[in-house]
Amino acid sequence: MFRNKPKCSRCGKEITGNEIIYIKMRYPERKGMTEIKAFLNNEGRFICEGCFDGERSATI
Description:
Blueprint: E1 21-24, H1 36-43, E2 45-48, H2 49-59
Antiparallel strand pairs: 1-2
């Protein structure tokens, strides 16, 4: 999958297969095909579900 295991950018927890995650990233300007895993690893910030839910409940 990834050469380096992806980790949550908030808590540092290692992301595993079939885990629900959220990715913070900018919408790409360019069109075209790309390898999605490589693109997400390079351009996105992974957030685990626990950190995302905690952030949402803190803002409500």
